[in-house]
Design a protein that fits this description.
The protein is mainly β. The protein contains eleven helices and 58 strands. The chain is globular, with a radius of gyration of 31 Å. Bound molecules: 1-methylethyl 1-thio-beta-D-galactopyranoside (IPT). The site of 1-methylethyl 1-thio-beta-D-galactopyranoside has 13 residues, from loops.
Length: 953
């Protein structure tokens, strides 16, 4: 009788693997031939790690009946099994290093011929740039070994095994392994060979590992270059006249590399067997005076956390997608990336070198799930796992050390503290003393060179900025960065401008990295974009995986527009007496790369525009510039304003010449409030009341028409479909208003009619708006008057009872039978809320009801436009006094609230319009702090009014 024993010890072995070569520097190409093995592979999925033997690895095996799969790729995104999303919980029982018997295992098979010109001499390596989570590899029937470390490169020496004819490469990939315990990042679990597979020829005398040391002395303006190489050779940099031996040092005048001025020098490392192209950027990173300085100047990180994501291909990113990310970052004024939470595809860092982004390169390490057991058994504090941690650190540092863009090494994310991370930090310092070490999970900064926090509140950040936060002596000497802040889940994040003000006010604060770059929604035939739970996972964290500044298809969300404005590298402010003050907020560049324009607007329409010569103030400096005389001829009572924009002086590598980098806007003359004399008399006429252009229901006082426009459902509205930030995260200690609002019943307000009164000049409708089960209420008076042509509604609201909660919104909602095109004068073009309104620019905007919607993957309140003076839609013109928040959609807030995915929303016949006097701020409580008190919408007595008329009438 045979007994089943522990399956496949290597899967649960905590060591990093067996058979692979030591890690080395990555480079895109050399003159040594390489053969990409990307493409269609044969694929067979098994439910367990040992369901199949290894017969498939033998040459001659007939896999003709296997499926086919794309490599790079994840099998769960190609119709085999399903993805699983958890934030920090391990989706399997925690019993390290053991993994479940149900361990989806994908056998991958690829037969390939060597190209005819493949050299007969020399060796070859087989490189895997990323496989999740554990792979065992055979070539031509010979087992090469196995490895873990999903987002790290692994190479095998394969020269003697290659055959001129057909070669058989067999790779067995297990979804779960001991390595999974080290890879508990908040993301989809996506097994597979998800990065390139390449066969690289290694000629006799090929370059092995090499380390480019290129520093910059900002005092002398000189760069010092030395290339240490495993295989000796020569280094040439023609542009600099450099021709030195490896190991030799040379100092020459150079232009430094910075993210703002990414100056690269092309060079070559020539060993006896290979010529490797180099791209050298000279820069020096130091920790000095308690600050991270590059080339002698402190940095301000305006960063994002970037996971690798594509809505169809998961973490298997193609070069175009990587480039798109970089271009989008540059176009949105982002200057830094934290590669959360693993080293990215190596080509991404080439793009960062080339276009200019500061990079915090983070190791593939997270053991967050152990927090559930107070970090007991955490691999990071268990010597048995230390070799695996060191292996990960080495694979990252060796691969990425030659990138000028990489300025900080990060040990990993959310892995607690322990001897393992200390060992990693020590190893990294020993190998590369030229970059500071980051790790957020080290509150005392024992192992790190920078104090790093996530989601600290504005108050706390300010305390840290002032140096009042205490902490260890070492920590007190270090700068702060927020490695994560401003949780961009759903609508938001709010409060960005408030953080930026702090960063710019206190030297110790060196900026932060918004969480996160892109929503990880998965394209789904029925749901639009899927999130956690949509694949039937037994444990999942819902739409917490959709918390990016980009929607899954890389459309920028309003949060990214807001961030772009908040971090713009030039501040443009209107001075009095026809001047503008231009402040350079770059850390290195002057403003000579930008050109400025002015425009003068009357009631939101540009009537004159022209170029504005601006001198080139140095970083941190300002210039006062005189504007032209305002053009004459603005009608009396018009609202006039200046808008000054900064654009690239000429097209850059990342933006066309008409790209707006920064702008400022300010009023010259303000809009007069609309006035409507109460000249018309309301008159009861059977079942209706007539007042000027309007007809009301005589019994209820409900508005029915304004001229030819039917209007329904006018009433006070306080409800908004709670945003993810309204609902907050379960671990938040502060009030979570989205939940409290619902508990109070603000989504089921009752509208009691208390009176319909006619006077000589007004129709007055009194209501009390309140939820069942409480004595809280909002007494509301609607006072309708008219001058015969226009209809004015004055609303006054008096709260009754002890309102302790802020309100979601306060305003009037109404329904229009037909509406599509929308024109408004006010804030735009995009959405804005009280703490997300920096990017909202006053102007005359045109849109459609559909285009006003922001497609948050999980539907929620969205689409408000700020500061609206007037809006026209469906034949109705609405003016506000004061300006109002305008929202229009083809469903109600209640329907929006009920939807789980965008595909749940179906347009009805009515367009529902919200005219809000107030909106609650947005905040960032889906992971971080809530709405700052100054953006709360308090339940207080309020009065506001609107004027309705027929559009174009
Ligand atoms: C923080 C994680 O580092 C990040 O991976 C992500 O999960 C983010 O939160 C939320 O989206 S950890 C946080 C719970 C403090």
């Amino acid at each position: 009788m045979s007994v089943r024993t522990t399956p496949l010890a290597y899967v649960e072995d905590v060591s990093p693997g067996r058979g692979t070569l030591p890690p080395r520097a990555w480079y895109a190409s050399s003159d040594a031939p390489a053969l990409s093995l990307n493409g269609r592979w044969r694929f067979r999925l098994s439910a367990t790690a040992d369901a199949e033997d290894d017969a498939f690895a033998a040459p001659g095996y007939d896999a003709g009946d296997w499926a086919e799969i794309a490599v790079p790729g994840h099998w769960v995104l190609q119709g085999h099994g399903a993805p699983v999303y958890t934030n920090h919980l391990y989706p399997f029982p925690v019993d390290p290093p053991h993994v479940p018997t149900e361990n989806p295992t994908g056998d991958h098979l690829r037969v390939f011929d060597l190209p005819p010109d493949w050299p007969a001499d020399g060796g070859a390596v087989l490189r895997f740039d990323g496989v999740e989570s554990c792979a065992r590899v055979w070539l031509n029937g010979t087992e090469l070994g196995e490895f873990k470390g999903s987002r790290l490169p692994h190479e095998f020496a394969v020269g003697p095994l290659l055959r001129p004819g057909g070669n058989v490469l067999a790779v067995r990939v297990h979804q779960w392994s001991a390595g999974s315990y080290l890879e508990d990042q908040d993301q989809w679990w996506l097994p597979g060979i998800f990065r390139d597979v390449t066969l690289v020829h290694r000629p006799e005398g090929a370059a092995g590992d090499f380390f480019v040391h290129a520093s910059y002395d900002h005092v002398g303006g000189e760069g010092t270059l030395r290339v240490d190489s495993e295989v000796a050779g020569r280094v040439t940099v023609p542009e600099l006249g450099v021709d030195i031996a490896t190991g030799e040092e040379v100092t020459v005048p150079v232009e430094p590399w910075t993210a703002e001025t990414p100056r690269l020098y092309g060079g070559v490392l020539a060993t006896p067997g290979e010529r490797v192209p180099l791209r050298i950027g000279f820069r020096t990173v130091v920790l000095e005076d308690g600050l991270i300085k590059v080339n002698g100047r402190p940095l301000l990180f305006k960063g994002v956390n970037r996971h690798e994501w594509h809505p169809e291909r998961g973490r298997a990113l193609d070069p175009e997608t990587m480039r798109e990310d970089v271009l989008l970052m540059k176009r949105h004024n982002v200057n830094a990336v934290r590669t959360s939470h693993y080293p990215p595809h190596p080509a991404f860092l080439d793009l960062c070198d080339e276009y200019g982004l500061w990079v915090i390169d983070e190791c593939d390490l997270e053991t967050h799930g152990f927090v559930e057991q107070a970090w007991r058994d955490n691999p990071v504090d268990d010597d048995r796992w230390t070799p695996a941690l060191l292996d990960r650190a080495a694979r990252m540092v060796e691969r990425d050390k030659n990138h000028p863009s990489v300025v900080v090494w990060s040990l990993g994310n959310e892995a607690g503290t322990g001897r393992g991370v200390t060992a990693m930090a020590q190893w990294i310092r020993g190998r590369d003393g030229s970059r500071p070490v980051h790790y957020e999970g080290d509150p005392d900064c024992r192992d790190t060179d920078v104090y790093s926090r996530m989601y600290a509140s504005h108050d706390e950040v300010e305390r840290i900025g002032r140096g009042l936060d205490g902490g260890t002596a070492k920590r007190r000497r270090l700068p702060l960065i927020l490695c994560e802040y401003a949780h961009a889940m759903g609508n938001g994040p709010g409060g960005l401008a408030d953080y930026q003000r702090l960063f710019e006010s206190y030297d110790r604060l060196q900026g932060g990295f918004v969480w996160e770059w892109i929503d990880h929604g998965i394209t789904h035939p029925e749901l639009g974009f899927a999130y956690g739970g949509d694949f039937g996972e037994e444990l999942h964290d819902g739409n917490f995986v959709c918390d990016g500044l980009l929607f899954p298809d890389r459309t920028p969300s309003p949060g990214l527009a807001e961030y772009k404005k908040v971090i713009e590298p030039v501040r443009i402010e209107g001075g009095g007496d026809g001047t503008v003050r231009v402040t350079n907020r770059y850390d290195f560049a002057d403003l000579s790369g930008l050109a400025f324009t002015w425009s003068y607007e009357v009631d939101g329409e540009t009537v004159a525009a022209g170029p504005l010569p601006v001198p080139a103030p140095a970083p941190g400096e300002s210039a006062e510039v005189k504007l032209p005389s305002p053009p004459a001829g603005a009608p009396a009572g018009a609202e006039t304003r200046w808008t000054v924009r900064a654009l690239p002086a000429e097209a850059t590598a990342w933006a066309p010449a008409d790209h707006v980098v920064a702008w400022g806007q300010w009023a010259v003359t303000e809009r007069p409030a609309p006035s409507v004399a109460a000249r018309a008399r309301p008159a009861a006429d059977g079942r209706v009341i007539r007042l000027g252009p309007a007809v009301f229901d005589a019994r209820t006082g409900a508005l029915r028409t304004v001229g030819g426009v039917a209007v329904t459902g006018v009433r006070l509205d306080v409800w908004r479909a709670p945003t993810d930030n309204d609902n907050g995260a379960p671990w938040q200690p502060d009030a979570r208003y989205g939940l409290l609002w619902r508990q109070l019943g603000l989504h089921r307000m009752r509208h009691r009619l208390d009176g319909v009164e006619l006077s000589d000049e007004a129709l007055t409708v009194r209501t009390r708006v309140a939820p069942a089960g409480t004595d809280l209420g909002l007494r509301t008076v609607h006072r309708w008057t008219s001058d015969g042509e226009r209809l004015r509604l004055a609303v006054s609201v008096t709260p009754e009872g002890d309102w302790t909660l802020p309100l979601p919104r306060l305003g009037v909602r109404l329904g229009l039978a037909r509406a599509d095109a929308v024109t408004w004068f006010g804030g735009g073009p995009g959405e804005a809320y009280p703490d997300t309104r920096a990017a909202s620019r006053v102007g005359r905007w045109h849109s459609t009801v559909d285009e006003l919607q922001t497609p948050y993957v999980r539907p929620q309140e969205n689409g408000a436009r700020a500061d609206v003076r007037w809006a026209e839609l469906g034949g109705l013109r609405i003016e506000g006094d004061p300006a109002f928040w305008f929202t229009a959609r083809r469903w109600t807030s209640e329907q929006l609230d009920a939807a789980g995915h965008l595909t749940d929303l179906t347009a009805g016949d009515t367009v529902w319009v919200n005219l809000d006097h107030g909106q609650m701020g947005i905040g960032s409580q889906s992971c971080g702090p809530g709405v700052l008190p100054r953006y709360h919408l308090r339940a207080e007595p309020a009065a506001f009014s609107f004027v309705f008329s027929e559009a174009g009438g």
